[in-house]
Amino acid sequence: KNEVEQSPQNLTAQEGEFITINCSYSVGISALHWLQQHPGGGIVSLFMLSSGKKKHGRLIATINIQEKHSSLHITASHPRDSAVYICAVRPNTGNQFYFGTGTSLTVIP
Amino acid sequence: DGGITQSPKYLFRKEGQNVTLSCEQNLNHDAMYWYRQDPGQGLRLIYYSQIVNDFQKGDIAEGYSVSREKKESFPLTVTSAQKNPTAFYLCASSSQEGGIQYFGAGTRLSVL
């Protein structure tokens, strides 16, 4: 059973498009983590948030705790944004993170 | 440069053999983690350690062992008891348990 669901699984966009990746979860959480995994396998932390919204460059992450939902937005997408984006949640009951299966994004020039 | 170093990048295991994956960090982080990634699945926690000389099993610890003798190092041994070891293994660390995690580049393990 996976407590974290991401959609879509795969996404192809044209360069410059606005992109939204969604994450839904089923348990009460104390934090949500967005990560980026590059084709070589390395993973980079993008955001950790527990409420509201965070922005870094062209990336924006929002979370709605009541609806158990988070979104990651990419504005003015670029081919270098092509990667797998992973959502992970930390339940209220512990410190372990549970990971979604990821959204594979391809941005075409 | 601070970071997490995993080695080797690729590793092959013969049947019945134990192999050890290395993970070293110079971020001065207390907590360290080992994850396994399989195609179509999210990362799954194998073991984690909050402090030197202490570690706890994650969701899929069977067939694996770890040690934490130094703060900087958290090696993972894939034992012969792990019947399906082929996967991508990721090590991570955080300054405190449950905090933002920083990942190594991973080790891809295959069975010969």
If you had to describe this structure to a student in words, what would you say it looks like?
The complex is a heterodimer of chains A (109) and B (112). With 109 residues, chain A is mostly beta strands. Chain A has no helices and eleven strands. In chain A, the strands form two sheets. In chain A, strands 2, 4, 5, 9, 10 and 11 form a six-stranded mixed β-sheet that branches. In chain A, strands 1-3-8-7-6 form a five-stranded antiparallel β-sheet, with no helix packed on it. The radius of gyration of chain A is 13 Å and the shape is globular. Chain A starts with a strand and ends with a strand. Chain B has 112 residues and is mainly beta. Helix content of chain B is 0%, strand content 49%. Chain B contains no helices and eleven strands. In chain B, strands 2, 4, 5, 6, 9, 10 and 11 form a seven-stranded mixed β-sheet that branches. In chain B, strands 1-3-8-7 form a four-stranded antiparallel β-sheet, with no helix packed on it. In chain B, strand 9 (87-94) and strand 10 (102-103) form a beta hairpin. Chain B is globular and about 35 Å long. At the A-B interface, strand 4, strand 5, strand 9 and strand 10 of A face strand 5, strand 9 and strand 10 of B.
